[in-house]
Design a protein that fits this description.
about 150 residues, two-stranded antiparallel ribbon, two-stranded antiparallel sheet, 2 helices
């Protein structure tokens, strides 16, 4: 692995953490929205990541969790991360009896999303720190490359 690969790996990590931050922001923004039916209630969303291994071209072969892959060796070098998708949390929604709420159904219940704001805030801090770590890795690699250029002087 060359030093130049660090930029691609850290860049893919920054992109993945950006997706994670956007998902957290969406969850927090919809944490208190109500609905009169289970079908229309917002459900928390979470991104799914996987490792991209060195030598992998496009596709999803070689990602972590792929049991039939040629790159399933534990010694295979990772060359980044990819977002496989965003999934909805299938945990139970919260039903509250609020007959005076304009969004209440005929029985007087409204449904609140399955978003735990405390967990989302912790996830936001974690994603932010991971983003910062990847940015520091890029800065360190840049500094190392600059030092290599000054060796011949």
């Amino acid at each position: 692995m060359s030093l130049a690969n660090v930029f691609a790996i850290a860049g893919s990590g920054m992109s993945a953490q950006n997706t994670r931050l956007n998902t957290v922001a969406s969850n927090i923004a919809n944490a208190e929205t109500v609905s009169s039916s289970l079908d229309q209630t917002y459900r928390a969303r979470h991104p799914v990541f996987s490792t991209v291994f060195e030598g992998q071209s496009g596709g999803t072969a070689g990602t972590s969790g792929d049991s039939g892959s040629l790159f399933n060796d534990q010694d295979a070098a990772g060359s980044g991360v990819q977002v496989n998708g965003i999934v909805e949390d299938q945990s139970n929604l919260e039903a509250r009896y609020e007959p005076k709420n304009p969004a209440a159904n005929k029985d007087g219940y409204v449904y609140y999303p399955n978003v735990n704001v405390v967990e989302e805030m912790a996830d936001m801090i974690s994603a932010s720190r991971s983003f910062q770590t990847n940015a520091e890795m890029m800065n360190t690699a840049k500094t190392m490359m600059q030092k290599v250029l000054t060796l011949g002087q």
